[in-house]
Amino acid sequence: MKRLLIPLLSALILLSGCAPKRFGAVYTDVFDTFTELTVYCDTEDEFNACSAAAHAELLRLHEIFDIYNTYGGLTNAASLNSDLSADCPDELVELIASGKQWYELSGGKLNIALGSVLSLWHDCREKGVLPDESELKARAEHCAIADIVIDGNNVSLSDPLMSVDLGAVAKGYAAQKTAELLTEAGFENFALSVGGNVITRGKKPSGRWEIGIEDPDGGLLTTVKVSGESVVTSGDYQRFFEVDGVRYHHIIDPDTLYPAGLWRSVTVISENSAEADALSTALFCLDEQSGRALAEKISAEAMWVAADGSIAKTEGFSDYEK
Questions:
Q1: Is the pLDDT confidence value at 6 over 80?
Q2: In a domain, 125, yes or no
Q3: What's the CA dihedral at 57, 63, 64, 67 to 10 degrees?
Q4: Rounded to two decimals, what is the model's pTM?
Q5: Which CATH number do you get for residue 150?
């Protein structure tokens, strides 16, 4: 899960009846997180149509990517994990194919086949205990990305003990698809935050959208100004538990099978929300040199916050802070 950003979507004081008005909605029933839509448009009826379309699309994608629940008549991630082979909706096939590509791009640091390991950490987090080392290693034997086989719309898991987990990529993909739908419907100026995966289109009447990036130790670290870009942060400071005074967060390094320890947070700015979501997780598990090379490869900007509070940025990141 991505760390919630602080959307600074402040309302403009309208001095003219011709100026677009600010409308907003919050959804709490998609992707197990807090989702916020802010739109500048002319009328409340226009906004209600926009909000209904966005909510419906997010609900549809939530059900497709859900790894915990099945829905009658729908083949989704949960039913794929259970049945091991299924003809899947286009969106699920596309996201899984993207996940396989990100495995290669990240050198294995983003692995959607890590479901068996992540589910063990999830259960331990709920109980407040550390996973058994032997069980952790045994589950890691069933996380080979090559065991996810795609043939047209058919997806097969050739290892019966494996499972897919789309948590590192699903919200960004859903935000991207929803933004595309709204743009096609004629909405030009909006910001959508799906659990901190923020995607923007157009501008506010006062200028670019301002997105606050939280300091891992609390408060506001910086603010970036965007128009059409996505901003995503991965961090160690929201979903975690402590054992004997040691914090264990939810972003697991596939190589160590334990929470990645290089960074407190990584923020990515990219034109594509799905890419930003995946990249922020990958960079959180990569060293700075490797992360910079990957960010440059896909034309994204990034900011790293280290454990000692020091900050590193790609060359173009500061341009968004002006």
A1: no
A2: yes
A3: 140
A4: 0.92
A5: 1.10.3980.10
